[in-house]
Model the fold of this input.
Amino acid sequence: MAAILRLLLSVLLLSCMAAVSLSQGEEEEFSEELILKPLADRKVLAHFQFQSRAPPTRMYGHHHHLFPKALYQLVQKFRIREMELSFTQGRWNYERWGGFDPISSSNAKPPGVELWAVFDVPHDQVDASWKNLTHTLSGLFCASINFLESSTAYSAPDWGFRPFSGSLRYGSLPREAVCTENLTPWLKLLPCRDKAGLAALMDRPSIYRGFYHSQRLRLTSTEFGSTEVESGIAVDQTLTVVLQPTTSRRASMTYSSDSAPQPSWSLSSIFGRKVSGRCVLAKSSNVYIQVERGLMSKLKNLHAEDEGSGAGDIPFEKSWNNSGFELSIAPNRVIKEVNSLHDETPTVLYEYVIDNYSTSEPFDLGFTWNLPIIWSSPQAPLHASRFLMGSGNERGAISISLKATEASDGLWGADTTENSCMLRFNVFQVVPWYIKVYFHTLQVFVDEKPQSFMDVIERMRVSPSEDKVSPGLMEMAFKLPCHVKSVIFTLEFDKGFLHIDEYPPDANQGFDIPSAVISFPDFHASMHFLKDDSLNKSPVLSKFQERSLVLCYTEVLLVPLTTPDFSMPYNVITITCTVFALYFGTLLNVLRRRVDEEERLLKRKVKSMYKTLGPGTHVSSLMQIVWRSCMQPKV
Done:
């Protein structure tokens, strides 16, 4: 009996140890991070990133303590492999804010709502899963995402947008207004919401008065055996805001408008709040100051000049107080980029650990400029813009123009020739069904010279629109010499006619064509740092080290269509009702009137009035005239 008890106890002890080891190896994680980066046009970029991870359901179960339950049910219900949803107000300025870095490549989104999802279901069930997903997200985020349910509002890209053929669906709503009703449900997915941690900085007026803000939700799942390694479900919630710091009067009076240094700022000045500590459920909570390559190059030159005049001998990469700027708080660590292929000067990150701060000692980082510095942000090889051509409400043309940027020369190198170096880029564009594009009218101009599209296009996939059924889809892969200066291609279209029930309430404003996506498959934005275990624990630094595809979005086009006179039904109804009222009123009056009865009634009233007055009373001349006219016999 004792031997059996010892055996049971040993088995129980081993099971407990296995459960503990399993819980330690596979557990939920939540982290919060904030990146602050000064921009070249006197603005500040604030990039919040919150990551939640849940281990595989097969090992951990269906119940979670940190991971949002609504998103877990979403993945299980619709078998989602990948999904990304973004709400954006404003347009990312690729020329001034950059287009060749991990933040701009992943978080610069088109205006309005953009949604794409990859499903792990049979091909004949993808459309049904997409429609159910749009309704669920619409209720979850208080938005009009359910409008993407219609087959005229979404498309199925093949290779021009993401490499998921058949199971990918893409849709966008350019005119969707973004407000706090969308941000509040987004914040409720965080364990501490906006009550503690870095999310407490999200003051609504501060965020929505910015030049650009985009809240994004990216979801990846390996729950359904689509990959060999089961990592569970990961959700990245990012909020990217471009803010304008306030300029003091003293600085504006000391310097002229051209030579004035950039406005200094702090967390309390741009957000109106301080960080009172981390979220207690967060595994890590860090704030980073990112100084990009162009600014570091300028500061390095200033430091070299100071060293030549006998200034300090502290290594520049380790100095957070230099001739260019000063930080109010010493960083916990300085992280330097290595293997920078674009320039000899790397990007530098100053790290601050929020665990060291509390309510009694809040974190309020300040950034003070000492000198006016002009630099440029890294840009993509080509800058894209899109516009309309033609006039009238019958036909027109769409033109996409791509021009080489100043940074393109440094990407190729000096030893490349026109034959050995080729530039490849993809164009993905969706047009509504009422914009009837004629794809045979495609014209391509390279360096302002017409070219045959067979010479510059490697492959092309076109899906013509079908009236009231599906939108038009165009995917093109271009291949051009590296040193090309400009590329322009145009497509002609006719404007369709809508039924009166299909017009929106603001039809006279025009109709939107969603942004086109320009991607460069040979270019990837990434940063590499020295190998350190702490870097692997930081989700944002891990994302920076991943190879993200360089892409950009064009402008949203506003196309005026022929609109009917919506006041005409009102006018017709009003006139018709007036005519019917006059006609039937007169007819009823004629049919119901009795002339003799009215005369007898009038004589009876006058006779009673005369008797009441009496023969001796004075009667006015008017009464006598009425009496005589009534008492005279008829002829």
The chain has 18 helices and 27 strands. Confidence is low (pLDDT under 50) at residues 13-25, 249-257, 310-314.
